[in-house]
Amino acid sequence: MKVLIVKTSSMGDVIHTFPAVQDARLNRPDVSFDWCVEEAFAGIVALHPEIGRIHTVAVRRWRKALFSGGTWREAALLRRTLRECRYDLVIDAQGLLKSALVARQAAAPIAGFDRSSAREPSAALFYDVGYAVPRGLHAIERTRRLFGLALGYQPDLSILDSGIVPPAGDIAGISGRTAFLLHGTSREDKKWPAGDWIEIARLLIDRGMTPVTTWSNKREKAVAEAIAKAVPSTIMVPKSPLAEIAGIIGHSTLVIGADTGLTHLASAFGLPTVAVFLATEPGLTGPRGQYASTLLAAPGERVTPAVVMAEAERLLQCEALDQANAGKN
C-alpha cells in the first residue's frame, strides 16, 4: 500500500508526525510512505528512514507571488508529479484548508480529521473519510490516533519513538561532551535574555561540557557572538543548512533551547533536552521525549540559568542511570 503524508509545516508539526510513522512501520509493514512538505523542512523529513520520496511545496513563497507564472508552473508540476505516483491513500495529518488542497492534488482517497477534530473544520470537506480524534490531546497523540484509524490498527501510546536518526560521522569537527544552545526563536518575547545564555554557557564549562551555538539571522548572530565572546570555549557554528544543524544537534550530549522547532527535534532524537518557555504555553504542542523537560516562566518570575542547569543535570543523570541499567541486562 502506497501512502502520501501531507504535513507541510511547521517544523514542530512535522516532527510531531514521526511517531505515527513508527507506529505504522510496526503495525503495517506492507505500507510505504512518501511525504509532501514545505521546501524548508525537506531535510528534516529526510531524517526518517521510512520515508521514500519527498515532495516539496512552497505555499509560503507562492502566496507572495500568487499571480506569477513561475508559481503556477511549480504548482502544476507538483500536481502532475503527485498523480503520476498513483497513491492508494493520502493522509492529511495537518487538518488545514491549505493542506487539504495540497492533498487533493494527488487524485487519491484522502483520510483526515473529521469536522469536529480538524484545526480548520472546512478542511474536512475535502476528505473522503474523516476520523474523530479528541482535540484536547497532545499533537503527537492526535496524529498517532489518526494514522491508526486510517490504517486499521491501535497504536501503543505507552511507547514514544520518533524513529529518526542523526547523520553518521564527524560533524564539523565537533566532538566530546557538547551542549547545543538554541537561543533563536521567532518572537522576541519568547527569547531568553543573552545574559542568561552567557551564564548557562559558563555553568556548562564548569561541568566539563562545551557549549555549541549557531544563528540564522543578524539578531541571532549578535547573541551567538556575545556568548562566544564572553565564554571563549563556545563553538559557534556558522549559518548552515537545516540538515547540517540537525546533524550537530543529534550528536550533542545535551540541548537547551527556547520555544523553537529545533528544540522539538532534539527531544525527538531522544536527547536530554531542556526547553525554556517564556511567553507561550507548551500545552498540547510542547516538546515530548524520554529525556525532555519544559520549564515554564510563572507570571512575574523568570527562569534562571541555575534552575535550567539543575534540570539539565537531572535529565543527564536519568539518561546515565537508564544506560547503566540497560548494560546490566
From TrEMBL:
<keyword id="KW-1003">Cell membrane</keyword>
<dbReference type="GO" id="GO:0005829">
    <property type="term" value="C:cytosol"/>
</dbReference>
<dbReference type="InterPro" id="IPR051199">
    <property type="entry name" value="LPS_LOS_Heptosyltrfase"/>
</dbReference>
<dbReference type="GO" id="GO:0005886">
    <property type="term" value="C:plasma membrane"/>
</dbReference>
<keyword id="KW-0997">Cell inner membrane</keyword>
<dbReference type="InterPro" id="IPR011908">
    <property type="entry name" value="LipoPS_heptosylTferase-I"/>
</dbReference>
<comment type="similarity">
    <text>Belongs to the glycosyltransferase 9 family.</text>
</comment>
<dbReference type="GO" id="GO:0009244">
    <property type="term" value="P:lipopolysaccharide core region biosynthetic process"/>
</dbReference>
<keyword id="KW-0448">Lipopolysaccharide biosynthesis</keyword>
<comment type="pathway">
    <text>Bacterial outer membrane biogenesis; LPS core biosynthesis.</text>
</comment>
<dbReference type="GO" id="GO:0008713">
    <property type="term" value="F:ADP-heptose-lipopolysaccharide heptosyltransferase activity"/>
</dbReference>
<keyword id="KW-0808">Transferase</keyword>
<dbReference type="InterPro" id="IPR002201">
    <property type="entry name" value="Glyco_trans_9"/>
</dbReference>
<keyword id="KW-0472">Membrane</keyword>
<keyword id="KW-0328">Glycosyltransferase</keyword>
<dbReference type="Pfam" id="PF01075">
    <property type="entry name" value="Glyco_transf_9"/>
</dbReference>
<protein>
    <recommendedName>
        <fullName>Lipopolysaccharide heptosyltransferase 1</fullName>
        <ecNumber>2.4.99.23</ecNumber>
    </recommendedName>
</protein>
